[in-house]
Amino acid sequence: MLDHTDIPAVMADMGAAARAAATKLAFASAERKHAALISAADTVWRRRAEIIDANGKDLAFGREKGLSPAMMDRLMLDEDRIRGIVDGLRAVAEQADPVGQVMDEWEQPSGLHIQRVRTPLGVVGVIYESRPNVTADAGALCLKSGNAVILRGGSESFHSSSALHACLVHGLREAGLPEDAIQLVPTRDRAAVSEMLTMTGMIDVIVPRGGKGLVGLVQREARVPVFAHLEGIVHIYIDKAADPETVLKVVLNAKTRRTGICGAAECLLIHEEVAMTIGRGVIRALIDAGVEVRADAALSGIEGTVEATAEDWGREYLDMIIAARTVPDLDAAMDHIRQFGSSHTDCILTEDSAAAERFLTELDSAILMHNASTQFADGGEFGMGAEIGIATGKMHARGPVGATQLTSFKYRVTGQGTVRA
Predict the structure, then answer these.
(1) Does 318 lie in the same domain as 276?
(2) Measured in whole angstroms, how far is the alpha carbon of residue 295 from the centre of its chain?
(3) What is the dihedral of CA 350, 355, 360, 361, to 10 degrees?
(4) Which of 7, 45, 108, 242 sits at 20 to 30 Å (Cα–Cα) from 338?
(5) Helices 133-144 and 158-175: crossing angle, nearest 10°?
(6) Overall number of domains in the chain
């Protein structure tokens, strides 16, 4: 039994085990992976009382640490959320297996037949905070895509993550797959994170899910490639041709449904021609819903608003707070987003199809929306079953990272004694 205080030894052992498991998982049948996920889903539901009890310990730990209400909401599991985890596992199970899919194929004049086929990345390291459901989502997506995974959950979700991880391992065992395919770092010691970031011979990619501090640390210190987004600074632009009813419905949902997720709206940009009509109405509705609206000078006359400062532009609140400012036109709105956005998710509310098309074409965020709540910025809502994160970079994966995005590819080249002249 390894000494869990010897972090380098613990991580080296986990890395070697993951690499061995990845070799076997890379060619595991779609049927076995499906069986493992269905068994895991059944086990999560059967053990839901144990999981909720474990989550109670984490909630107590979070209260002692003084976590914000938004962070406590991220941490909390109840029967409905466990049902969501079960549904997510089942949804991933039922998706087409990406491994071995032929992405493209062609014949060369030389007589070669060439195929580009999907192949697993190998070993994925996932470092995350607070949200215990990431344990299930990440484990399921890595398994589906033929990757082994090393999970390092946040100290706040230690007990919940451990309980969910046990269910995933049960599924692997039942399906006859290597149990080391999904491993959970067995310590809260932060040295494990630093160790993972340097495991270039054992981990093929790191996926951080958490706040700006965690993701920034990973991006600065990782020697392993990283899929990451630093922040979800989500903008909604209310165009002069917006429908008032649509604005009210979408903005309230985008801000208040769950404030602690990365798709929550953080800034409203309102066309100056509708600032005192549609804009006033939605700001009043936000205030009535308990949202603090930090407004620019043009909107500060609306009762209940708080005067915005320069620090409010480009800020991720993850709370019942939103910034709001007027803009003279669509171009000014897009300029603001380019300056202060984080390339995560941005939305336009308008009935003007030309304005919507410009917004969707000319901005370069990972997710761009028209007349829809930004809370849909989620792999499950995109039909991926779940997501391991939302990548805002431009290399390999972008937007919600599901099972397909956790694959690379290789070329299969077939000849008939073909030689090169």
Answers:
(1) yes
(2) 29
(3) 180
(4) 242
(5) 30
(6) 2
Indicate whether 396 belongs to any domain.
Answer: no
Please, are residues 246 and 371 in contact by the beta-carbon 8 Å criterion?
yes
Q: What type of residue sits at position 42?
A: D
Burial of 298 (0-12, 13-18, 19+ CB in 10 A): middle
Owner of token pair 């093929």: 204
The answer as to whether 246 is a domain residue is yes
220 and 238 together in one domain: no
Q: Are residues 288 and 352 in the same domain?
A: yes
Handedness of CA 245, 247, 250, 255 (dihedral sign): negative
CATH assignment at residue 329: 3.40.309.10
Q: Are 275 and 347 part of one and the same domain?
A: yes
Q: Tens place of pLDDT for every residue, the chain, 421 residues?
A: 456 789 999 999 999 999 999 999 999 999 999 999 999 999 999 999 999 999 999 999 999 999 888 789 889 999 999 999 999 999 999 999 999 999 999 999 999 999 999 999 999 999 998 789 999 999 999 999 999 999 999 889 999 999 999 999 999 999 999 999 999 999 988 899 999 999 999 999 999 887 778 888 888 999 999 887 768 999 999 999 999 999 999 999 999 999 988 899 999 999 999 999 999 999 999 999 999 999 999 999 999 999 999 999 999 998 999 999 999 999 999 999 999 999 999 999 999 999 999 999 999 999 999 999 999 999 889 988 778 888 888 777 888 888 999 999 999 999 999 999 8
Of 209, 150, 145, whose CA–CA distance to 182 is shortest?
A: 150
Q: Do 55 and 196 belong to one domain?
A: yes
19 vs 11, 122, 235, CA distance in Å?
A: 12, 7, 41
82: Cβ–Cβ under 8 A, 6 or more apart, which residues? 44, 45, 48, 51, 52
Q: Which ranges constitute the DSSP H helices of 109-257?
A: 133-144, 158-175, 191-196, 212-221, 244-256
Q: Which domain holds residue 143?
A: 7-227+401-414
In a domain? residue 389: no
Q: How many CB atoms lie within 10 A of CB 170?
A: 19
Collect all residues with Cβ–Cβ distance below 8 Å to 226 and sequence separation of at least 6.
Answer: 205, 206, 207, 208, 218, 219
Same domain? For 196 and 267 the reply is: no
Name, in order, each residue with C-beta under 8 angstroms of 56's C-beta and a sequence gap of 6 or more: none
**Could you tell me if residue 341 is inside a domain?**
yes
What is the Cα–Cα distance from 337 to 295, expressed in whole angstroms? 16
C-alpha closest to that of 286 among 309, 318, 254, 262: 254
Q: Quote the DSSP letter at residue 366.
A: S
